[in-house]
Amino acid sequence: MPDSIRFDRFALRVQERVLYLDGQPTALGGRAMELLIALAQRHGRLVTKAELMELVWPGLVVEENNLQVQVSALRKVLGMGAIVTVPGRGYRFVLPLRPRESGHAAASALLSPPPSPASLLPSNLQLPPVRRARPEPAPAPAEALASLPMPAQRLWGRERDLEALDALLPTPLITLVGSAGIGKTALALAAAHRWRADRPDGTAWVDLASLSSAGCAVTAVSQALGLSVGGADRLASLAAALGPRKVLLVLDNAEHVLGAVTDLVQAVMQAAPGVRLLVTSQVPLKVDGERVFRLGPLSIPSAGASVDDALQHGAVALFVDQVRALDRSHTLLPEQVDMVSELCRRVDGLALAIKLAASRVPLLGLPGVVQRLDERFRLLAGHSAGVPDRHQTLMAALDWSHELLTRPEQALFRRIAVFAGGFPLSLVTLLGQGLTPDTCMDEWLVLDTLGALVDRSLVAVDGGESPRYRLLDSMRDYASLKLQASGEQALLQAHHARAVAELMDGAYEAYWLSADATWLGQFGCDIDNVRAALDWAVAHDPHLAVRLQGAVGPLFLLLGLAPEGRLRGRRVEALADALGEDPAAARFWLEHSRLHWGVDNAGMLQGARRAEQASRSANDARGVYLALRCVAGSGMLAREEAVALLREMSALERPDWPARLFTQRLMAEVGVLRSLELMADARRVCQNLLVRAQSAGLDGVMSAGFSDLAAISLALGDTDAAWRISQDILARGRHRRDNFVVHALAIVACVAFVRADLAQARATLRDFLDASRSRSWEWLGLYAGLLALLAAMEGRHEAAARLLGYTAQTYRTLGSHDVLAVYAWSRAHAAVEDALEPTVMQRLLAHGATLDPDSVCTWALGLAPT
């Protein structure tokens, strides 16, 4: 690392630990200097809070607010834009670095000795002596305090949190932080009862929620402690009175009198080292010596858990306990576990919301409560005696939190509701948009305010180098109500849609350059934002709808959501028609074509031709290349035309193109060779495709290549290879929504028929139908001949005839069909012709052409009435 780091008008000498401004030393404290060195040496990189704490305070346990204090000190010297905050994660030093100077002038300027601190003061300035207030101590209480409320009979799901709190002792100040209704008070009360024995002078509990002003805080605490304080400085008097005592003082619900509590805590910690403080609040106090304990939601079991496993999770255990308190006969049944878990998940594991939901079960029943969760603010309301008003309803609890926010915090909180699910930092700036100039927020204010909402546990942060932010479901519903009432919703939705379109334009270009896992890790999480933006754009901005639908084609493909992508594309077709050869329309038709591969070859060809024409008009070589891949891959061309298109694709290729583009021609070539039944050549090209795809991390292309290779192996009579490759596809695809799982199941069934293993064929085709149903019946038509063959082999010839009629109709829709499909069709058709009279067969074929997919399943598996 260089000893001298230069930026703007500054020079940082690392060895000397001195920062010079225009050649003169600045007065930076020691910790601020260490922080500056740590950030400057990692210029441009996100440095996490944990990393900075270790670098600046090595081997020491200090609180996060110390870091914020030092960052503020640096910004006062360097300027606000020198250090960028990444809310919830850390900081970046972003001032441009200057090259190192040379020559004696620079050296002499830097090496000149700094003036002494005394010389920086005027000669006639004398500092007055420090005078400290010396209040008279109040009389001590006659006996140890014991003012704790009774705890709950059991603290459901918080045992580990309680142990973690124990581990923070003997820290003098612990602040228990969490959102409204999450269970801070209950946990603090349980901790206080555990810790009371360690404080010989007793324990005091102070509920600050009822205080009408910050000025009442000292009075409330002194009354709880049994102390009488007076004089001009009542806070100093209280702190002095506590000086010799060893007391546990619990301050509950500090968020609305935060400033007064901060002053009180600091005074007590300075004057009374024997006092242990436990504070509950929605936001940290940010004072020296504070240890912050963030309380998360109660744990929720995953789907399919048993009753015993589910009851080990705090959310379910609390729900069952609260229902049982109203109905002693209540028992959690195995068939109810998933429903209760889903209920707890939809109320975000919040203890208050779970209790309120449980109170509704005797009246509405469990299914009735779950069905009404969309109206959660009306559903989750109670009228319990002895419970504070803010805990009578979920709405009241959130109102309490909302009123504590500043105006910018309230504005940002409601605007976050425009996002569907989470959002990345790159989309945060749109939240600064307001209806009037005075309601707009610049980027720095947005970032700082977002950080404040994270501190208040209103916004959750999902970690990683590129953090994402989100509201819990209950918070989002509440924020949505506030956004609707503000009049800003329409404006924010428009800005959201345009910001998402810009994000996905960049994602589309990155797609051709990136490995699948890397690309999905960056953009896959925004699928819900994409859906919301598309819905808005289709209704309000046709050009934006076409542009965005074209940009998100790869996202739908790699997430295994091609059926949804096709359906959404159909809503945009007319809008794209109206744009003619606009570049946005060209991209739309290309991606719309790619989404129809193997499902509707005629539709694939039609979209590809539109994309080809527009791309040729725009002299877009890449667009032409990709459009030709879809034209050739449609399987609907004569041999000579298909081969000519492959040659043109090869001529368009450039050496600097990324691997993903080259694989497009190879996939088209495999398809053409398979349609021409040149299987040995197809296998060679397919193996080349797999090598390229694997080296570039193109998982989706690899799945397509393996699927082709399995089908080619079967066509060449290598059933063992076809079986093995298909099983590999199934193993890979179960970890994600891989559409090639459906292909693999069809090939396994075909192998079973070749091997005369009818039981295996039936079991596999049952799985095939389930997989196809989950994907809106994708690939059902292509492989419907296998279903007809199953019925024929089982002697159900009339069912087989109906299924053949359905197969013939879908082949006409597809425009082409696979060699394996021809094999299944031929065997089934021959068996049915031998078994049925021609007139009967024709009638059944005609009936089969009218079947819907559910009826196809019924006839295929022999479930239809005879």
In words, what does this structure look like?
The strands form 4 sheets. The protein has a 6-stranded parallel beta sheet, with helices on both faces. A 5-stranded antiparallel beta sheet has the order 4-3-2-1-8, covered by helices on one side. A 3-stranded antiparallel beta sheet has the order 5-7-6. Helix 30 (about 660-675) runs antiparallel to helix 31 and helix 32 (about 700-715) packs antiparallel against helix 33 (about 720-735). It is α/β, with parallel strands linked by helices and about 850 residues long. The protein is globular, with a radius of gyration of 35 Å. It has 40 helices and 17 strands.
Short account of what is shown:
The chain has 866 residues and is α/β, with parallel strands linked by helices. Helix content is 57%, strand content 7%. A hairpin with a 2-residue loop joins strand 1 and strand 2 (10-13).
Structural class by helix and strand composition: alpha/beta
Gyration radius over CA: 35 Å
Model regions low in confidence, pLDDT < 50 over at least 5 residues: 101-143
In round numbers, the mean pLDDT is 86
Number of strands: 17
Main sheet? 6 strands, parallel
Indicate the percent of residues in helices.
Answer: 55-70%
Strand content: 5-15%
Shape: globular
Taking the alpha carbons of the first and last residues, their distance comes to 84 Å
Largest sheet strand order: 9-11-12-13-10-14
Counting DSSP H or I runs of 4 or more residues, the number of helices is 40
